[in-house]
Amino acid sequence: MEQSLVRKEPIGDGIEIFVSDNHAFGTDAILLSNFAAPKRSDTACDLGTGCGIIPLLWCRGDAPKSAVGVDIQPEAIALAEKSIAENNLGEKFSVVLSDLLELKGKVPFGSFQLITCNPPYKAEGAGIKSRTGADKIARHETACTLEDIIEVASKLLQTSGRLCMCNRPERLADMMALMRQYKIEPKRMRLVCQRAGCEPWLVLLEGRRCGNSGMRIEPTLYIEDGENFSEEMIRIYGSYKDGAK
């Protein structure tokens, strides 16, 4: 795996995250962390955690009760471990270096109230391949497929536990079909647009393990209002990097 320069970035409330050129994060991860909205009593697991951005964003508050981040890439796990140590979060956030298909015995199956995943958006063979190995794993289904992720999530969740994911709208039908295939009922969806009049570029979807049918579609989230961030985006960013990056 290619090594890259490591740097530290503030994400608000005194929390700092270590990132690199290979393992950084974008707006989609910030939106997913907000959409998942863990409860204080939740035990959560973030699949494909990368540098650990989603659990670290949660650590700015008092929920969830605990979180585990899983990733197959040693450099990503090393960055997350560095952030955990830097912020003294060892009692709340831990990481596991593992292939998703080899998780049994490394994390307790059937024990989580919340699973999150910001998965590779492109199916294997679709789109232009990324240049680096880290980018290929993050953006294309080379190390795991969408079906792998949802199948593993179903095994990790308690009955009524939630799976929250984001993806490109073109994969929405696949996400819903696979959730139902693995007994996770789609329950809540939100589309994200850059601004009014634009097509959605992201979909946020929540499913519930063994849930009843019936899905709520939330109002569209607009990133921008004119030339500036929308009021909702400013609230979501909160104190993150002066609320503007």
Q: Can you characterise this structure?
A:
By secondary structure, this protein is an alpha/beta fold. Mean pLDDT is 90; it is low at 126-130, 136-140 and 241-245. The chain is built from seven helices and 13 strands. Helix 5 packs parallel to helix 6.
The largest β sheet comes out as: 9 strands, mixed
Ranges where pLDDT stays below 50 over 5 or more residues in a row are 126-130, 136-140, 241-245
Helix share bin:
25-40%
What is the gyration radius calculated from CA atoms?
Answer: 17 Å
Question: What is the H-and-E element order?
Answer: EEHEHEHEEHHEHEEEEEEH
Helical segment tally? 7
Strand percentage, roughly?
A: 25-35%
**Could you give the distance between the termini?**
28 Å
| Overall 3D form | globular
pLDDT averaged over residues: 90
| Total strand segments | 13
Broad structural category: alpha/beta
Short overview:
Helix content is 26%, strand content 29%. The protein contains 7 helices and 13 strands. It has helices spanning 27-36, 53-58, 74-86, 133-139, 146-156, 172-181, 231-237, and strands at 6-12, 15-20, 43-47, 66-71, 93-97, 112-117, 157-167, 184-193, 202-209, 216-217, 221-222, 224-225, 228-229.
